[in-house]
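Q: How would the structure tokens look for this protein?
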Amino acid sequence: MPTTHKHPYTTLGTRLNWTSWFIFANGLLAMLVALRYVPWMTVPDTATAAYVSLLYPGQFTLLAWLAGLPVLAAAALAPARRWLTAIAVVYASLGIALLATDTVAYALYRFHLSSFVLELAVSGGTEIFSFSQQLWGTAAVIFAGIVCVEAALAALLWCWQPGSRWLGAGFALMLGLQISAHGWHAWADANYDSRITSITRHVPLYYAATAKRFMNEHGLVDPQAVRDKQAGSALAHAATGGQLNYPTQPLQCSEPDRKLNVLMIVIDGARWDMLDPRWMPNLYGFAEKHLIFQKHYSNGNATKPGIFTLFYSLPASYWDAFTAAKTPPVTITRMQQLGYQTRVLGSATLVSPAFDQNVFASIPDLRLETPGEQPWDRDIRITDDWLAFTASGRNPEQPFFGFLFYDTPHNHRVPEDYPVKFQPYWESVNKLELDQDFNPELIKNNYKSTLHFVDNQVDRVLDDLRARNLLDNTIVMITGDHGQEFNEHGMNYWGHGSNFGQYQLRVPMVVHWPGRGAGRIDYRTEHFDVAPTLMQQALGCDTVPSATYATGNGLFQPRERKWSVAHSYMDYALLLDNLNVVTRASGNVDVVNSELEPVRHYTLDPKITLNVLQELSRFYK
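A: Here is the predicted structure in token form.
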């Protein structure tokens, strides 16, 4: 039976029961406010609608509970009903108002509020967000309305509230909805069902479960068969672009005078200072005869954002949208229009991260997994497969696009019988031993050994191009997806994916371009510049502004921007010449200098702030 309470002081059990139902009720209220996100979703059928119906109540009730824990603590400390009610109403009103503000921001920019966005907004001042008195008045009226609704809801629950025994059912329902929505999304992701996977990016603070690799390893899903089966529908969907505005206008390109082959070689974790005759003698010798971009940076400190930004030349915040729409980069689309043969060979899987659903979504007969027990086995295999392609699989009447992704450096080990192991070599790599007291040269020598191994594989590819006289009509780009750190900053950073300093972002970029001489380029370039270079210099789109499809402006001219953006899997950063504004997955914002030391006093140029916000949103419809 519902209970009523009229006394100014109540028992702890009563206060906790009231607060719990107040939080649940605010979860439903938040869900109603969040319906403003729905117009931006594509809900083509009843199955997708059913998924949204599971996702919404589960997600917004969970958010209400996570946000409402301080109110629950107040219930334990505030015996007076009036004080508890006042605290709960004001706190909940602020939360609902913040959600409503996020729906407005999403309608304008297609991204949700975050500490990063708020930091830019506050630093940019009124030059970024300028509100009229009328708008402030409207906002005040809306907030007053929210307070009234919350007060009425609080009063109603004091007069009439379900018994505490029903709370268990409420929690069970919330958990069941969460498990159902996450399970559905994981299955949909493994089965390339973009109807479902395209929904989640619209929902704030929702990180949907994926389990493609797990399902593949346990035989629950065959990604290759699923991809082949759905290739036609995926390409049809990619052509529409979903809710992407990419490119921002139709590309008016012409037939290039000469269709050059394009070969992109990416070495996992290769950083710029490893381009050294001691560690990579073959690549160093090749680079000396061609173009070396000495200050080249990846726009990601991990594989997922590193490869994404290399091909799209766009911030990796667009990952979810491009993946859901299965929209390939304009570079690959343009090469396919020009009749290029494609050969994509990854030593690492192309399933997780899901490059098969974005970068290579339009590549037919894409091999998702390369056979081989160890990374070096797979590196040898992709080299062998590439040589077989140039020997007999290539149509000499067609240009080709090739992609080779080497993975041995990722695990810091080479085959036992490999003759070059820089000493001292760490035979039994145990990364749990890495700490402030660990000798970095030990694991760094392993890293150098792996690069030496890959250097020999790349040399096989380059020798083959020379032997077949293909270098004269082949663009070759050799780079890394991200860098690698060995505690150079003395802050116990090892590997990658943890900060946005030069050791994790700066990578080699060696380019052989027919008709261009050797040289060293000393200005800063980025992965953001790769797509404009290919489109304008090789694929007949020289009259199309690079801003139509990319953030960068090309490798062969200094960048026009005074800022950049880089992503990790969860973190991201605004990169300036003298500082980085870093947003962590926790929501914290850190401002650091080039040595990763905290910066307390800084000023952001409002024009840069506005440009960043626009760049993070302009490729959405």
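Residues 232-241 have pLDDT under 50 and may be disordered.

The radius of gyration is 27 Å.

Upvote if useful.
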